[in-house]
Amino acid sequence: MSTTNPLLVTRRFVGRQLERTGAWVGALTRNRIRSHDVVVDTSSRWISDETRAALFWGFYEGAERRAIARYLRPELDVIELGASIGFLSVLIARRIRSRKLVAVEANPELIPILERNLSHNGVRDVQVVNQAVAYGTDHVAFQLLHDTASGHIAASGSCGEDIRHVPSTTLGRLVESRELGDFALVCDVEGAEYEIFAHEGEAVRRKCRQAIMELHEVERDGRRWSREELADHLSRQWGMQIVHGDGKVWVFEAAPTRA
What we know:
This protein is an alpha/beta fold. The chain has two domains: 6-57, no CATH class; 61-254, Rossmann fold. It is 37% helix and 25% strand. It contains nine helices and 15 strands.
């Protein structure tokens, strides 16, 4: 009897097709791919063919893009954690216009790509920050992988050619140092959001009026947290209401402040 997992086989097949499509798209467009009216420079070796294909077919960061278009409040400043190559940063900047946008990305190899894509799309005055949100340390080790979505914070003391040491910050420090008013948090930090839940209650309750977050299942505090459990935990801990959740991307709103 075969023990091959049909879902795994399908994923591998789709992955191979995306790689082929992405390589073809990169060559055809000279690595300037237009997706949802955003021109993305994909010439860097840190951008995978799968990402190129997802941009070309229009489903790159689809859940986040739809949540931003539908829910992001244009009257708020924005902190974007995990800005990556700047695709969502451009869409956020266009939506909030005259408000402040702080785009935070831990991977130093992505910072030139992020800045280039903001510039290509006529977006200016974005505060780009190469730091990692972390607690109890001044620096973190960041492991580079050849895919924009796969880099991650490594174990303390890690070293090697694929490791970069990045200064750390906190959400509270970002709010104060960038002189933000009431703000929305847009967050995709590949599982590190649990640490933000645990440490940032004060900063959130004072000024955060909205959060759009990609949630990941994580192992913390001796248990495994599902996305639904994390969303409920965040809602109760931060005093926010869940207004949208599709299993991956969740939107939270603070109660209106009284005059």
